[in-house]
Specification:
It contains 9 helices and 4 strands. It is globular and about 45 Å long. It folds into 2 domains: 47 residues, no CATH class; 121 residues, Rossmann fold, CATH 3.40.50. By secondary structure, the chain is an alpha/beta fold.
Length: 178
Amino acid sequence: KKISDVLQKSAPKPGVPADLQNLLTQHFGENRSVIEIEELKLSDSCFLPANDLTHSFSSYLKEICPKWAKLRRNHKEKKSVVMLVLCSSALRSLELIKSMTAFKGDCRVIKLFAKHIKIKEQMNMLEKGMFHIGIGTPARVKALVEQDALYLNSTKYVILDWNWRDQKLRRMMDIPEV
């Protein structure tokens, strides 16, 4: 059997904190000490409830972030975002941007992916403008953080697009590069 056949028959289930903890332990387990691995553990209070797959993206965001208007008004820092959404691809990022119109209101959204957008352009946009939501791929977000173009100190929410599967039925965390 092909893995895609097995995945196609399996019902999607919402991600849980243990999934991320297991992934971190697997990834860092070989080259970290026991103490360093222990420091990687996040308490369940660090996690918001996962989308139980009955919500649209906008309604899920409204549920987990009921005070969004206040957070948005108070955000004044450049080179940072209040909410960071990580997706497996640029196309998925665009889908989520379109589907969150009911939630975002008049806040500014920046696209943080490589498809047709050079990293220098994104660095200039982050430096000159103020953005509330950043949606992009892990590789581009990592590159922007490493080049000090994106600061995460004022980020209140990091949302992982954990359950969505691409045409090969892979989730974001199933892709080795992520």
